[in-house]
Amino acid sequence: MGGDGAVQGRNNPHTRGVRGAWHPLPAGRRIMTNRMMKALSISLLLSLTGWGNPLLDGADPHAIRVGGTYWMYPTEAGAPEPLFAAYRSTDLKEWKREAVILKLSDVPWVREDRAPKRLAWAPSMLEKNGRFYFYYSVGPQSVQFPSHIGVASGDSPAGPFRDSGGPLLTGGNGFEAIDPMAFTDPESGKTYLYTGGSNGSKLRIFEMEDEPVKIRREVPTATPPHFTEGAFMHRRGETYYLSYSHGRFNHDEYSVHYATSTSPVGPWKYRGMILSKDRERQGPGHHSFVESPTGEWFIVYHRWETAERPGPYRGRRKVAVEKIHHDGNGLILPVVMTGPAGD
Predict the structure, then answer these.
(1) pLDDT for 19-43, tens place per residue?
(2) Does residue 337 lie within any of the structural domains?
């Protein structure tokens, strides 16, 4: 969520705050229950040491694993033009910027709205049947220049990628076409696109065609509590985990919440907040989950490296990675953010 450098201006005044985009948690109601405080203590004992966070400049990181290699696609920080790049790692700690995989200047349909400035943010990657599908957000976000979601495909996670030739989704009528995330259900083989949020704060799910560059139909679903944007779906065991960000991206209350289901499209059972600010770091969110070859789970997210509150913050956000732990019922324990020494 939000932008750095070439994408500065995300959540612009044309859209942010119109119709109550985000919904702060009521002052008299705290999600951190006694049970979760116990879980937090357990998670603290289990937290990583010496991880080396933060890892690099960027935001909205989407990570996948292909064999023994991890690939990450963030909103770029300080790029000279709106573009996306692929980063590669074998351990989730050391990342190499492998290649620029897509520039908006190379996508003809992006120029059709004649917007004076364009933004590129919040990408995601899907591997399906040996091909890779790259989904991305295009702005501005305004009544005159609505947001779009595009999709490009290629044979390698490092590209090259060829755009599909037109927008997959376009915002309008209170819906913002932003923050795409595609997930293929291992049970049915169907691919779903999760999107939406911010101004409308509404989750939408679409079933994709077998080649997931076109939408087959919209799937009715409920928007879970405290949803603002940045939906992510993953499956562990028989449980589907829908996680998402809550709050304003450049304020301290930005955080990650989640819900579970026995289906990739709901109904959802809200489970609580799992990642939030601490004394030294604010506004963690817009994340992805990735599984290691040995079955360990990690969350890849961005945060503001500051002790100041409440915001708004400016400048560049940082990408960080933390290990995920579950309790005996498969629920995600609250995540403890770590620094260079695993503090």
Answers:
(1) 333 444 444 344 445 555 554 444 4
(2) no
What is the domain-level CATH number for residue 309?
Answer: 2.115.10.20
So what's the pLDDT on residue 198?
Answer: 77
Q: Which of 192, 198, 257 is nearest to 218 (CA)?
A: 192
Contact assessment for residue 326 and residue 67, using Cβ atoms and an 8 Å cutoff: no
Domain that holds residue 43: 5-324
Q: 3-state SS string over 31-72?
A: CCCHHHHHHHHHHHHHCCCCCCCCCEECEEEEEEEECCEEEE
Sign of the Cα pseudo-torsion (141, 154, 218, 186, in order): negative
Which residue in this structure is represented by tokens 């795409």? 180
| 63 falls within a domain | yes
Place of tokens 């076409």: 177
pLDDT (tens digit per residue) in 47-81: 444 569 999 999 999 999 999 999 999 999 988 89
> Which regions of the chain are under pLDDT 50?
3-32, 39-49
- Say if residue 143 is exposed, middle or buried (CB neighbours under 10 Å; 0-12, 13-18, 19+): exposed
**Cα–Cα dist 110/104, whole Å:** 7
Domain count, the chain: 1
- What six digits make up the tokens of 236? 């562990």
In a domain, 267, yes or no: yes
User: Looking at residue 14, what is its pLDDT?
Assistant: 32
Q: What per-residue confidence (pLDDT) applies to 18?
A: 31
- For residue 196, give the nearest of 230, 168, 219, 221 by alpha carbon: 230
